[in-house]
Amino acid sequence: MRIKRRDLIKRLTMLPLAGSVFPLESLLSAPVAVDNHSLFLQDDQMPELHRKALVMDGHTHVMTRELLMGTDIGQRYKDGTVDLPRAKEGGVDAMFFTVYTPEHYYPGRFETKNTFRVVNLALDQIEKNNAVIELALTASDIERISKKGKIAAFLDLEGPFDLDGDINLLRALYRLGLRSMQLTAHNTTNAFIDTCNDVSRWGGINGLGKEIIAEMNRLGMVINVAHASNDAILQSVEASKAPVIYSHGGFYGIVPHPRCITDEAAKALAEKGGVIGIHFGSLFNNPKYFEWQTDTKETTPASVHSAELNTIGEVDEELRTEVPLNFTGEIPDEYWMHVDQLAKVIDYGVNLVGEDHIAIGSDLDGGPELPREIKDISDFPQITMAMQRVGYSEKRIKKILGLNWLRVIREVTGR
Ligand SMILES: [Zn+2]
């Protein structure tokens, strides 16, 4: 049977929006009371090392479905790949709690409104589920919260706080608790930085980009260059006084996709103390899958088009048909990546820039074509087991699982 795939990354990049509206009933998620998916990993299979280690994911999508479907991240769901019960089950102690403003909101210039409401919702959801999760503003917070057995949420923004780059809005978000932000407007070039998927308007970053970097340095915010163009990464690393992160992606040396970081950029970022988070998706990590996907068109410019939708509510309606943002296609066996391939990508990174600069950035609930052994966040121990099979030391695995994120956050926030 021919494969019917839904390439979410591509879809989220293409505007204006098209497609039919599904009946709302079919889109509503209902919490489930019992865990019925222990097929992948049994409780007693979690390695002791994983249980003891501080496990931090550098890019976990949250709040899109909570906002659009009215779900509660504290409940366990059958769909999607992230909720707090499953995160606990996967031994995840901390995450870049990534709130997302996709391209859908840009044509009508609803990006700032969406960003503030998802940050506000994230704070509400963290407060509501305070028994299991707390907001972290620093590395010390992450340690303190995880020692209590709770999950630490380190707020991170994917999408523009403002396509024009108004620094006052950035400061307001900082005051709300945002401590990490991607410079690009997801896949779209904004007023100050080029992305890897869109037109190069600035040849990297411009003067405003440097001002924003300086302000983030001054505030103590983590600068995230995922989705930036190669020149933009190099120039951002150069401009920043603090280490810079690339929260989620693969290596261009393995898969020549624009969302993969070049060896040159990876080395520059690491030399300044930065960290690269390895994505869970086949597209960025499995050359066979990438080659198979011959019709890949992610390089198509994702410039903002004219708005057809007049209100933010209309945009919500459209986007609601796409959440949870998970890959739902089928992958033939020969192209479906095993978790051991992820370990190979991690090893490529360790050989390239050293064990102090590689971490995990799953992009769960953001749409990656997950490895066979990982159905959702509860299967996080599979990564540890794959690294153990490579023969990594306990010390190295702990760095990659979380200590590298912790170190870079401490350097940036000062605590
Ligand atoms: Zn992303």
TrEMBL record:
InterPro entries: Metal_Hydrolase, Pept_M19. It comes from Cyclobacterium lianum. CDD domains: rDP_like. PROSITE patterns: RENAL_DIPEPTIDASE_2 (PS51365). Pfam families: Peptidase_M19. GO terms for molecular function: metallodipeptidase activity. This is Membrane dipeptidase. GO terms for biological process: proteolysis.
